[in-house]
Amino acid sequence: MDALQNKLNASVVWEQLERKVDRMISLIGDKSPHVAKADGKYDDQRIDWWTSGFWPGMLWLLHDMTGKPHYKEAAWSWDERLEQRMLQPNYFDHDVGFQFLHTAVFKHKLTQNEDAARRGLFAANFLTGRFNLSGSFIRAWNSDKHGWSIIDTAMNLSLLFWATEQSKDPRFAHVAREHANTVLKHFIREDGSVNHIVCFDPETGEYLEALGGQGHAPNSGWSRGAAWALYGMVNTFRYTGDAAYLRAAQRVAHFFIAHLPEDHVPHWDFRANKSLADEPRDTSAGAIAASGLLELADQLPGEEGWAYRDAAERMLLSLYENYGTWDNEAHEAILLQGTGYKPAGENVDVSLIYGDYFFVEAIAKLKGWKNRIF
Questions:
Q1: Active-site residue numbers?
Q2: Residues 165-205: tens digit of each pLDDT
Q3: Rg of the chain in Å (alpha carbons)
C-alpha cells in the first residue's frame, strides 16, 4: 500500500488536473459536453440532456478546492440556464439530480445564493413528482414506458435528501428512501451484480421483469450500473444511517473489485463474454466506482475501510497512467476509452464527461475534499 501511495501522488495529479481544466475552459467555452470521439473535441449536447451538470460541477469543484475565481465565473450561470430550459418544452427526466446537484446545489453550498437553493428545490419537486406510489419507484425517461425504472436514479436520490435538509420537509427524503428500498429489492442481485432496467406494472406496482438496457444482457454485469449502485447506496447510508444500504454497497463493491482485470480498469460489462480480452473498457465506470469506494472507505473504520480505499487508488492510478490525455493539450477531455451504450453501438471507445467529472472528484477526495454534493 505504501508503494502505491508513493506512486499515486494526488497532489501531482491535482496540479495536472488544474492545468488540464484551465485548457478545457478555453476549448469548451459555453458548450454542454457529453462525448469526445477520436478528434478529441467535445460535442455540444442540448442543455436538458442528462450529462449537462458534470462540466459545471467540475468547475465548482475546482473553485471549492482552489478558491480561484475563474472557475466560479465559468460555472456561475449554469443553474440559471437549466431553469430557463425547465420553463420551456424540455426533456428533463429522472436525472435532474445529476443536473441540479452539480449546478444549483453546489452553487448554494459555496455561495449561499438563494436563487440557487430555489432552483435546487424546484428540481427536487420535479423528481418527487416522478415517484410511482404503487411500485415505490421513480420513473425513468419520458417515453410511454411508465413502469420503467433504472439503476442510475440511485445517484439522483441525493437531490431529495438535500431538499429535506434545506427545506425541513421530510417528503423528499421519504421518496428517496422508498426508491432506495426498491433498489435493494429489485436491482441489486445476491451476488452484487446489478440490473439496469426493472419494469413494473405502473398501475399495481407489480414487478414484471428486468432488462439488459445498456448492459450485455438481462443477467449480465454492466459495470457502470454497478458503479451507480455502489455509490448511490453509500450516499443513502450516509444520509439515513440505515446499515441495509451500507451492506448493499459493500456487496456491489465486492462484485466489482473481484471482476476487475489486471490493470484495475473495468470492462464495460463483466459478463459480456467468457473471455473479455477483446471487449472495450469503460473508464467512466472505473472513475465512478473509485469515487464511490472512497466514500465507502470513509464510512468504515480500520482495515475494512482501508481495503476499499486501496482498491479505489489502484483504479485511479491505472486511469491516470494508462488512460489520460496529459500529453495531448488539444484534447478536450481527461480520460480515454469510455463506453456509453455498447449494445446499440453508440459511444464506444470515447471520452465521457461524467468519467472526467468523477475522476476529478475522486482525486479531490484523496486531497481531502469534504464538501459533498452527492
A1: 95, 152
A2: 999 999 999 999 999 999 999 999 999 999 999 999 999 99
A3: 19
